[in-house]
Specification:
The chain is of the alpha/beta class and 262 residues long. The chain has one domain: Aldolase class I (TIM Barrel). Helices cover 42% and strands 15% of the residues. The chain contains twelve helices and ten strands. The strands form two sheets. It has an eight-stranded parallel beta barrel with strand order 1-2-3-6-7-8-9-10, surrounded by six helices. Strands 4-5 form a two-stranded antiparallel sheet. The chain is globular. It starts with a helix and ends with a helix. The relative contact order is 0.14.
């Protein structure tokens, strides 16, 4: 692997582990709850984030240019939650733009099993062809659109393996039962996506701890942090699972103790 590629990967993955903070939701959801003003939402969370997953529009307009948290630039889109099909994505942002914005990595969604499977997989291949030329890692997002019930080990293993085969350096996928099956058949590191806010806070800590125990290298988890009424205690708890090997119970104590601090 070239020095530039290794260097960029080491900016976003620390000692083999990572907590990516996604705030890219607006690219298809519009002004998502608690993300109406992304700059304000992320301000207290940046010290605990290993990288920020963001579109160029929000990066330029809401993130100060003296920010030192590495950027993973969201470069796919073209659909919306009120449109016909979320899977019909294209590449939205050039590799020159990623370089101009000093991105450490780029990220794009693939929709395997959808009507747009071929198109989104070719988007990934095109992006890898271009990004590799500049030593920029590509993170593939195995997206399911509105079909959240698709998230099982068999389907997600298929998605992650295909994304890795096409050249993704990191794959982001949903946690599921038997998550080790997904990780063990994927030759590149896997990070856990969050999904919609869970009913209880402990559920998040449990699935993150389980996913880490089963081989994930970290998370790319947004709504379950910044839609929480106590986002800083929550991110500290998740960080402890990822970087300090804390159990879900130990992390919950960090969360509960953090909630008491005024
Ligand atoms: C949207 C994304 C988000 O980055 C991803 O869904 C993670 O955020 P959350 O934890 O809120 O689901 O890729 O397509």
């Amino acid at each position: 692997m070239d020095w530039g590629m290794k260097n960029r990967l080491s900016q976003i993955i620390k000692n083999g582990k990572c907590l990516f903070m996604p705030i890219d939701h607006g690219y298809f959801l519009g002004p998502t709850s608690k993300l109406e003003k992304p700059g304000e939402t992320i301000k207290p969370l940046l010290p605990y984030s290993d990288a920020l997953f963001v579109t160029r529009g929000v990066l330029r307009s809401c993130v100060p240019a003296d920010n030192t948290v590495p950027i993973i630039l969201r470069v796919s889109g073209g659909t919306s939650i009120v449109g016909k099909d979320l899977a019909n994505e294209g590449i939205t942002t050039s590799i020159q733009e990623a370089i101009r914005l000093n991105a450490s990595a780029v990220g794009l969604s693939v929709f395997i099993g959808s009507e747009y499977e071929r198109q989104t997989l070719l988007n990934l291949s095109t992006l890898v062809n271009e990004a590799e030329g500049y030593g920029i890692p590509v993170m593939a997002v195995t997206a399911v659109g509105k079909e959240l019930e698709k998230r099982d080990a068999r389907y997600l293993s298929l998605c992650c393996r295909i994304a890795a085969e096409l050249g993704a350096k990191v794959v982001k996928t949903y946690w599921c039962e038997d998550f080790d099956k997904v990780v063990n058949s994927c030759p590149v590191p896997v990070v856990i996506a969050g999904g919609p806010k869970t009913e209880t806070d402990f559920e998040v800590l449990e699935f993150v701890a389980d996913g880490m125990k089963r081989g994930a290298i970290g998370v790319n988890l947004g709504r379950n942090i910044w839609q929480n009424a106590h986002p800083v205690p929550m991110i500290k708890a998740i960080r402890a699972i990822i970087h300090e090997n804390a159990s879900a119970k130990e992390a919950n104590k960090i969360y509960e103790d953090g909630k008491k601090v005024k």
